[in-house]
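It would be a great kindness if you could assist me with a short task in structural biology. The matter concerns a single protein, recorded as an amino acid sequence and a row of backbone structure tokens. Could you please explain, in whatever detail you think fit, how the structure tokens follow from the sequence? Thank you for your consideration; the sequence and its tokens are set out here:
___
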Amino acid sequence: MERELILAAHKVCKAFGPTRALIDVDVEVRKGEIRGLIGENGSGKSTFCSIVAGALEMDSGELELHGEKYEVKSMVEAQNHGVAMIVQEAATFPGLDVASNIFAGRLEQYTKCGFLDWNTIYAEADRILEDIGVPEIKGRMNIEQLNFEDRKIVEIARAMVNKPEILIIDETTTALATKGRKLIYALIERMHKENKAVLFISHDLDELMERCNTITVLRDGLIIDTLDRENMSIERMRSLMIGRELQGDYYRPDFDGSCSEEVLLKAEQVTLRPYFKNIDVTLHKGDILGFGGLSNCGMHELGRLLFGLEKPLTGSVTLYKDGEPVQITSPSVAVDRGMAYVSKDRDKESIVLQASIQSNILMPALKRLSGALGFISPAKERALTNQQIKVMSIKCRNGSQLVKELSGGNKQKVVFSKWLGTDCDVFILDCPTRGIDVGAKYEIYQLILNLANEGKTVLMVSSEMPELLGVCDRILVMSGGRLAGEVDAKNTTQEEIMTLAAKYV
């Protein structure tokens, strides 16, 4: 017996200038359905979901909710109709408390005698947080007190305020570690048991196969196919997404673990409270070193410290440039001496959303491009920009397009592009494939291997065990702010890494 229809989309179209993001998209979502949406970056997944969630208006087409015409002008209005969305990027409001973030746009419902009833607001926020499984987060907390993952959890709480019938999860799991992912998975299971529906966007195909009963594939704004559980396979989904077979090995074909004895970067007894204490790290020329562990183990903060974004309480970080030691005391010193950093928090730390693609790409390369008198040739600027757009296959109109208009994956490509336009020797990559589709991941992995083959050094921080095992020479595992062990990627397993990750927890 076919389940009752909740949402129907008919001939939905959307364009951004000359770019057609959605072309006559038809989708039906039924009660109890967990529908995955997959496709390369820029395929239209997030655009479609943003229309359903009230964040964008479609150019043409129709939406029906429970058989009635569905038109909303905001995400709050969509929530009032039972449709909520959790996005990939940070969407909390700084300077406010947790409760104000949860009830953003709807605080007026808690007005009493012309004043906001804050006791009720905080109590209701605490109830929602406890209901989704995070009683340790309280409504009275300032959002600035929370780390990135806990801020995302606050956004999840915001989405669940009105107990939605349709929950849209737009690449949210890529921003979450173990705790956050478990919470998301529990909510998906709850929605299914309550005969509600989920639209689940993710680039983790294994994740989708495990949790979805249908998967819809988009490419260049068109629906290519919809697969039921019996017809799902990683190979078929990859092929449908990119329209071609990936050439060569998805991960690296060689695991000889060889690198030069020449040291390019060394951290000695560095301490950053409360994250880690007395950590030693040595990176060699041609080395691909992975950092793995559970959430809040300190690996992300260590990457920031190596680049000079955090100052160690004890110890030092030394870069060896042409054999000469240089103390890394700030990001400007790091950049001047040939270091690159890709942040996990892309929109805040790695790109300027309001600037153009060209401006972002040129930022680290301005000194190199400038002539003897300090002037920069516009022709050189355009040439470098166009070169990087081509190398990274960035989907855009041209270099003048604003970065904020790009999909998450294409934003990440811009981040890489700006560093590839410089002569960097050391690349610190914190979750470099977060929010990137399978085709782009393949390109990033090949890029990392090429960098190592050129004698560059790569430090990859990641919570994705398959990519650490598939790309790195060796892996340092952190646990509770300490180094729990070092393993050879060729001769270890995910289980062994997870055992080390839990060693000091």
In short: The mean pLDDT is 88. Residues 5-242 form a domain with the Rossmann fold fold (CATH 3.40.50.300). Residues 178-193 form the longest helix (16 residues).
